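Pasting as-is:
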Amino acid sequence: MSESLRQRVEKIEELLSQLAKEAAKGTPIIVEGARDAETLRRLSVEGDLIEAKGSGRSLLDVLGEAKGRNTEEVIVFMDFDRRGREWTQRLTRGFERMGVKANLVFWRRLRGLVGGDLKDIEGLATYLETLRGKLEGHQIS
């Protein structure tokens, strides 16, 4: 168990490292809210984080803000619950209509790694700390 746990932690850390590299290149990352953006910053993902669900924003507001960045690609990194999945689909369709590539690779990979254990991005830092704690517990015994 500890080996598969170690591999999962390493894969999540590598995914976050790649996400940070994309953000550093200037690729905007669309997250649901301020807590999600704060969590990504805690995990060293800095850059252009666009909050989709803040202050009564509509889907069109988010699409327009991202389009205003004059970018060819955005990373959609919403929560994994039903509403997050719906927003992911709606944003993806909207960006495609505008000629902007909606990158879902990071979202899909993370969702595959966490399964049903994590429903939102804001819980990612705590989730990772918990997994690391379990790993340390296995190393001691």
